[in-house]
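Ticket #4471: structure export looks truncated?
Reporter: QA, pipeline team
Priority: medium

Steps to reproduce: submit the single chain below to the structure queue and open the exported record.
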Amino acid sequence: MGVMPTVSLYEVSPRDGLQNEASVVSTEGKAELIGRLVQAGVRDIEVTSFVGPRWIPQLADAPSLMRMLPTVEGVRYWGLVPNRVGLERALDSGMTHVATFLSASETHNKKNLNRTVRESVANVEEVLAVARDEGVAVRGYISTVFGCPYEGPVPVENTLRIVDRLLAGGVETVVLGDTTGMGNPRQVKDVVARLVAAGLDAHRIALHLHDTRGTALANAIAGYEVGVRQFDGSVAGMGGCPYAPGASGNAASEDLVYTFEAMGIHTGVNLEALAEAGGLAEALVGRELPGRFHLSWKGARVRAAARTA
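Actual output as written to the record:
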């Protein structure tokens, strides 16, 4: 009997999800959500951001949150850092895993980071140098790889140039972002193939997909078919991007886990426990969340309650 194929889920709801909510979730609520994700078997969780508090007030409690999180063997907590100052804040908070970010689109990069792509690459290289000296693991997000809400199609050459610099700086994983859900399965395969042909191992590629046009799950499967084994997800489909018009939620973690497990691909995540975490996320933000499995799971609970009433 052969070894069961596996993929890994990288959970972004405590950061990418909550930063887009109008309401500010309490530190205790965030810690409870992260705890539920850990209990479900998620081993990589992006818990917060060290972007300036005035830019993202929803995550201003990063240092306090870090003090509340339990140390669990095998679990890696990640924090998003915009620059060296953010990295220093992350290090002071005890972070040992961080993520950097920039865009493949010049216009989106200026809207999101208020600087050119060239300036952002230099900024990320500075972060990578310090992180390397501190023994901190780094994953590098590249946004709008599959299309930009301002510029439209983004040449894959833009991404290739950035990837070269990230790899030279020592980034652990390159994360390809479909920031407004403009990508399609054929495009995902083509972009990944170009990166692999340029020398990047597919196992060092992750996909961060948004479901704006309902294609996130199909794009994830396309990525798997060409060797990608790391996928970002957000419970119940929470998330978006404040500087990308039309960016709806991320690929729902429950949808990814359900689909991969149904295909015989092991995720290491307990689907029912993950759904419970999605239910908590919905309660914390006080609005209905769009994940397909989440909505089905909620409906089943309502029907079960009605039968026993």
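Status: closed, not a bug. The export was complete when the record was re-opened. Leaving a note from the reviewer for reference: The chain is about 45% helix and 15% strand.
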